[in-house]
């Protein structure tokens, strides 16, 4: 007897109305009567439909798939979570969809340890890069707090990816303000001091963004003890020349308010 997954594939391969087929899959995700297998198959089909076809990515969002896909990330079934994460990643490859994905509430669940960590982090990066409007929406949705939590918990294996995404967000004024307000300065300074080479680089770049246009933020970062590890980084023979130069620029910025205050 043919499996539910086979039935879904047959439906889609024979459908002359692909929009109708997508609507049926979305309806299945939303139906309280759908079994776990039904949900898995519907999510998998949407994931596959969005994988290689840009037109399908737009059609799936137009069919109303985002709310039920985001809801899958909070379900206890690991396979459902995985299908949901990867479907959202595929949909986020289309820049026109990114604002809608953020508005559907995807940022929190993607940051919160959903299955498929690599795809979740890649989706977050897609959502938080590119258009400034998308980054602002992600900040408003609480992305900075979620990213800092990931960066402060190395055992979750998401530090590097989270730092990449945070770097994209602190390129905006809203992102910088949120990073400071949410306690990001100590996290970033600790990463400069004790992180891996790549983490030290990303933390330095994030702090440079934070400090470039704000004397108040520079004072906060300096008081957190950032200068000694940055000096060590600027003098490290193993660090890339470009990174050493960035560290020196940041050190110069951090010393400005201290010099004006008569401090060393």
Automatic annotation (TrEMBL):
Per UniProt, the keywords (alphabetical) are:
Ubl conjugation pathway
Q: Does the keyword Transit peptide apply?
A: no
| UniProt domain U-box: residue ranges | 122-255
Domain of life the protein comes from: Eukaryota
Alphabetical list of Pfam families matching this protein:
Arm, ARM_PUB
Start-end of each ARM repeat: 20-64, 64-106, 142-184
What is the name listed in the Swiss-Prot or TrEMBL entry for this protein?
A: U-box domain-containing protein
